[in-house]
Design a protein that fits this description.
The protein is built from four helices and 15 strands. It is α+β, with helices and mostly antiparallel strands. The protein has a single domain, classed as Immunoglobulin-like, CATH 2.60.40. The strands form three sheets. It has an eleven-stranded antiparallel beta sheet, with helices on both faces. A hairpin with a 2-residue loop joins β5 and β6. The longest helix is centred in the first third of the chain and has 15 residues. The protein is globular and about 45 Å long.
């Protein structure tokens, strides 16, 4: 998420029954996305209970969209092909590219690494020789600069793998390798599904 977008979502907190603490819209959407990928079940959004549907699979990527008309959120998501270290205590791990048409967001990359990130170390995404530094918030990594988002999206389209590296608050270094097979088609479908 861009800094401005993340700030806008982070400033809006909501109480979600059963979770016990206020959460930002950004956290709700990311938790929802993880839940959808893991279970394909219903999830709670800031406005009401909604479901999302699998729109299409493209290589290593799946495209999802909510059932609202017009669409409120769509995303392409992938799980890593390889994780290191094997056996590390982690939650769900995903690479997302999200679209929120109402907010004018067309393709916003982010990652979920499955543990609290050491904010001093941050998160990096490496595609070929390109390295992108992401800022971290809890278990998530976001691109701070909109121009870097565009460069990351372009690199994803041209690359074959994306390597996400992060360090937990406990000091565990992790490396997650994602296939970029089908990413260009997935991004095209994301654009046409959530214009």
């Amino acid at each position: 998420m861009t800094g401005a977008t993340f700030g806008a979502y982070a400033d809006c907190t909501l109480m979600i029954p059963g979770l016990g603490s206020p959460m930002s819209k950004a956290h709700i959407y990311l938790i929802a996305a993880a839940s959808i990928l893991a279970t394909g079940a219903l999830f709670v959004t800031p406005t009401a209970a909604q479901s999302v549907n699998l729109v299409e699979r493209s290589g290593a990527w799946s495209i999802y969209a909510d059932t609202a008309t017009p669409k409120q959120v769509c995303f392409a998501a992938s799980t890593p092909q390889a994780v290191e270290p094997i056996g590390a205590n982690r939650g769900s791990i995903f690479f997302y590219i999200s679209a929120w048409p109402k907010d004018g967001i067309k393709a916003e990359p982010s990652v979920k690494v499955g543990y609290p990130i050491n904010t001093e170390k941050g998160v990096t995404v490496t595609i070929g020789t390109d390295v992108f530094k992401l800022f971290s918030k809890e278990q998530h990594g976001f691109v701070a600069d909109p121009s870097e988002e565009l460069k990351l999206i372009d690199a994803l389209k041209k690359g074959s793998t994306a390597i996400v590296r992060a360090t937990s608050t406990r000091g565990t270094n992790t490396t997650d390798t994602y296939s970029l097979s089908g990413i260009s088609k997935a991004l095209d479908k994301l654009t046409s599904t959530c214009p």
